[in-house]
Amino acid sequence: MKIWLKERIGKPELFTGRKKELAYFLNWIDRTKQEISQSSAILSRRKTGKTALLQRLYNIVFERNDRVVPFYYEIREADKWIGDFAEDFFLTFIYQYVAFKTRNRDYLSPKKARTLEEAHDISGREGLDYLMDPIRGMRLRAEKEKADMMWDIARELPRGIAEHNDERVVQMIDEFQFINRFIFWDKERTRRAENLAGSYLHTCEYKNAPLLVTGSWVGWLMDDLNRLLPGRFLKGPLGNLPEDESVEMICKYSLIDKVLVSEETVWLIARLTLLHQRAVQIEMSGEGPDDPGRCPEDPGIRDPELGCQHQHDLDGIS
Ligand SMILES: Nc1ncnc2c1ncn2[C@@H]1O[C@H](COP(=O)(O)OP(=O)(O)O)[C@@H](O)[C@H]1O
Ligand SMILES: [Mg+2]
After folding, report:
1. Half-sphere exposure of 146 (CA within 13 A, CB side)
2. Domain assignment of residue 265, given as a range
3. Residue 22 CB less than 6 A away from ligand 1
């Protein structure tokens, strides 16, 4: 399979398993064509494979080239003025969109810094004239530092373009909870935009460009979604790899790292890893036998006030 967007995992062949999750979300993506997929959230601790899964989904959907445009954006753990955030989000979408339409991977990792001027030129050159108006609109707002308008334009762009072309866009936003914690209304970064996730209240309901968000800070994301986007997202955990997929992964890593392991050791490591992850989960959460806030299906998910909010619509994925 061709890799379009560089995956953080490194060598693409390292990606192992996640068969159930890939099948579930590819079906979810397929159903966007009939506009029946609801925005969804994957909640699980750090280093459980969310980014690897989203980036692989991105590349599969890109490769399929079947009226569904993938969009991947990671919200970073660094303070940012909302104007800069909006422009970065906007340009990331434009460049990924142009790459998809032209099948040119260079737009996914441009050698020069991306700018609105360059995006405007590229769109004209590639015959994607309908992108030029929103880019001009963004430039105008950026010049006047109308930051909240810049965010409105950026946030609405994916669904607007999908509507214009009768296409679908799948918006994969990694570490969504950071939108409420690292974006600021002012350039000096003193006024945190602490309810910014709520700006998605209507945007995330459009079925031509649903969101697939992730969060490592499970409590934060759960709270943001329940408080600011009630009923808008299906929520589900990302479980451990099943034993056979763990074994396959350990074998691959041992080959790459040139560490010889016997078959017996591989199985032992796979079982210990699962046991260890479970032990860490229990230890970290203070889980007790009658803990009412604990989701029985994923002990990593809990909300102290609302109790278990796990929705069973995503039963298939964990
Ligand atoms: N399906 C997978 N196959 C092989 N390695 C994986 C897989 N998922 C995750 N990994 C490994 O685990 C690390 C952490 O995964 P990552 O996707 O960054 O987790 P998260 O985004 O949940 O923090 C990756 O760098 C990669 O080495
Ligand atoms: Mg990640």
Report:
1. 12
2. 243-302
3. no
265-279: pLDDT as tens digits: 877 777 776 655 555
| Atom 14 of ligand 1: nearest residue by CA position | 47
Question: Which one of 6, 19, 47 would you pick to mutate in the ligand 1 pocket, going by the greatest count of ligand atoms within 8 A of its CB?
Answer: 47
Task: Tell whether 40 and 157 lie within a shared domain.
Answer: yes
What does the block give as tokens for 196? 């910014």
pLDDT at 315: 41
What is the Å distance from ligand 1's center to 249 Cα?
A: 11
Q: Is the CB of 46 under 6 A from ligand 1?
A: yes
Q: Please write the tens of the pLDDT for every residue from 75-102.
A: 999 999 999 999 999 999 999 999 999 9
CA distance 46 to 36: 30
Q: For strands 211-215 and 183-184, give the pairing.
A: unpaired
Residues 34 and 123 in one domain: yes
**Whether residue 18 is found in the same domain as residue 42:** yes
Tell me the per-residue pLDDT of 45-54, one tens digit each, with 9 for 90 and over: 999 999 999 9
